[in-house]
Amino acid sequence: MDTVNILGVQVSMLGISESADKIMQMLDEEGTHAVFTPNSEIIMNAYKDESFRALLNRADLLTADGIGLVYASRIVKKPIPERAAGFDIAMEVVRRLPQSGHSLFLFGSKPGTAERAAQILTERNPGLKIAGCRNGYFKPEETDDIIREINDSGADLVFVCLGAPAQENWIDKNRDKLNAHVLMGLGGSLDAVTGDMPRAPEWWCSHGLEWFYRLTKQPKRIFRMMALPKFGFTVLFNGHKFKQD
Predict the structure, then answer these.
(1) Structural contact between residues 122 and 100, judged by C-beta atoms closer than 8 angstroms
(2) Average pLDDT by stretches of 10, the chain with 245 residues
(3) CA 84 to CA 206: how far, in whole Å?
(4) CB–CB of 109/191 below 8 Å?
(5) CA geometry: angle 107, 14, 89, nearest 5 deg
(6) Helix, strand, or coil here: 166?
(7) I want to staple 61 with a disulfide (CB 3.0 to 4.6 A). Which of 1, 23, 35, 48 is the partner?
């Protein structure tokens, strides 16, 4: 699988449809696969934290969630064809699940959100099998019970929506204990499905301005958004230090 090295993280160059193809393939393979969908902020954290960078690179698929990664790939002269947001990939996979017969477990967000998301997804995708739901509020000592619940459900695919880096750490730490074939870290995707955190309209997304739309809706994100220009300058001045395959 072709990747681009962005500040030490091997990001897939697959688009939305191709990423969904890859995940559907993983569902029919042995073992448990990890899929992460990093944006610029996550890559920047990995650049500063070697252990987190290694964790990301242990994943079976890393997709370019943010438009910043698309621009970064151009800077290092190995351009990603399109932004492959985790939410878009997940919804494409969900559309294919009824035909494949694979089941889905929703894990994360506030109490009740996963259940509402399950209802919406099954209404939109007749025949979709929801194996179970679990909110993302738990104590560390409850982890074994959550793993048991997921395994007992027989789920093939788990959407782990705990926010970064909690979801990546949880998946990496527990993937060998789970029977599901794919664990996918998806941040606030369940809230996007329910409308609690609506996505930007298509025009904003297609023009790479989803980040600005979210900022207008959540002004408190301004401090997090400050990481974006820092990421751009870091890639510009240090991106060449990481060898492209």
Answers:
(1) no
(2) 93 97 98 96 95 98 93 94 95 98 98 98 98 97 98 98 97 98 97 83 63 58 62 80 75
(3) 11
(4) yes
(5) 30
(6) helix
(7) 35
